[in-house]
Amino acid sequence: MTDYQEILDSIYSELLQQEDKGEIADYIPELAKVDPTKFGIYLNRIHEDNYGVGDAYTKFSIQSISKVFTLAMAFSNQGNKLWNRVDVEPSGNPFNYLALLEQENGIPRNPLINSGAIVVADCLLSTYDNPKAELLKFVRELANDDNIDYNVEVAASEMATGYTNFAIANLLKSFNNLENPVEDVLDFYFHQCSLEMTCEQLSNAFFPFANKGVCMQQNTCLTPTQAKRINAIMLTCGFYDEAGEFAFEVGLPGKSGVGGGIVALLPDNFIITTWSPGLNEKGNSYLGMLALEKFTTASKASIF
Ligand code: DON
Question: Can you tell me the distance from the alpha carbon of 195 to that of 198, in angstroms, rounded to the nearest whole number?
Fold first, then answer.
């Protein structure tokens, strides 16, 4: 039988020795304050035991991982109508790349790059009177945990310095692909990115994606088809211009954030979250990717 605790312990102790931990994202000033030595892993085996190592119970900024939650909300509200405003193709470009959006007439390549997530945020603003409260409610429900909040300093830090995201949102607006004012959409988008969660909370919140849309408390959050489609988007687009490399090395659908978190999952089997704030040159956690490659190799668990 596979000893998951032993696998996680050995990956953790091996990678703790690693000197190169990547670079912290400092383009968001508040994120530059994070301790680069933090490292945690949490495994939720959906119908079996759970395992945590290192800083698995410390909160961090989930950043782009939040794009999966807003996508799930918008997709379950709007159904396939959503795809008129955002495509589902890998972009092969960095998460904040601007030029492709102009070439493709304001239709973002997919909902996990910034432009696509900003369109998804706009959909939620058009749907709810108080989208920030609705998102918080949704994520707390998925994680089965009320101890999840926005970090308003991180959101304000991005509102003050997020020039590329303002450029993206203005371009979307010029192509009539934003219904709401740019400032309102970005205020929501920066808040969603500022959500703070632990590796344990993230693994739990991703439960429905690994369990055909049914969350931990057995409520149906998504249809099985919606869960399948979101997993497909994570596999092809979850790591931007490193999506191919992640599929090649790790072999799981997943999503990264510049706070250093990565969530990956094997449908009907497990969700695993890693957190190490140092990033590689593509903006994905350096140790997180190494840890996940080692995990799927040691446990022989991947979608391929
Ligand atoms: O919009 C941004 O630039 C950040 N709030 C989120 C970017 C991010 O997490 C990209 N992920 N690897």
Answer: 10
Question: What count of other Cβ atoms lies within 10 Å of the Cβ of residue 229?
Answer: 17
**Inter-axis angle of helices 224-237 and 66-78, nearest 10:** 140
Among candidate residues 258, 276, 294, 299, the one labeled active-site is: 258
User: Is 189 a residue of the active site?
Assistant: yes
- The β-bridge relationship of strands 261-266 and 270-275 is antiparallel
Structure tokens at 249: 């090395």
The span from the CA of 150 to the CA of 123, in Å, is 20
CA distances in angstroms from 270 to 77, 206, 222, 279, listed in the order given: 26, 10, 18, 24
Residue 113, pLDDT score:
97
> Between vectors from CA 82 to CA 169 and to CA 130, what angle results, nearest 5°?
65
φ, ψ of residue 128 to 5 degrees: the values are: -115, 145
Q: DSSP character for 274?
A: E
User: What is the SS3 assignment for 15?
Assistant: helix
Catalytic residue among 189, 194, 250, 285: 189
- Per-residue pLDDT of 236-268, as tens digits, reads 999 999 999 999 999 999 999 999 999 999 999
Q: Is-above-0.95 flag for pTM? A: yes
Name the residue of 95, 112, 154 whose CB sits within 8 Å of the most ligand 1 atoms, as the mutation to test its pocket: 95
Q: Kindly give the residue spans of alpha helices, DSSP state H, lying in the chain.
A: 4-16, 66-78, 99-103, 114-127, 131-143, 152-161, 163-174, 182-194, 199-205, 207-210, 224-237, 243-249, 286-299
Q: Are 289 and 18 in contact (CB under 8 A)?
A: no
Question: ipTM score of the complex?
Answer: 0.98
Say whether 64 is catalytic.
yes
CATH class assigned to 4-299: alpha beta
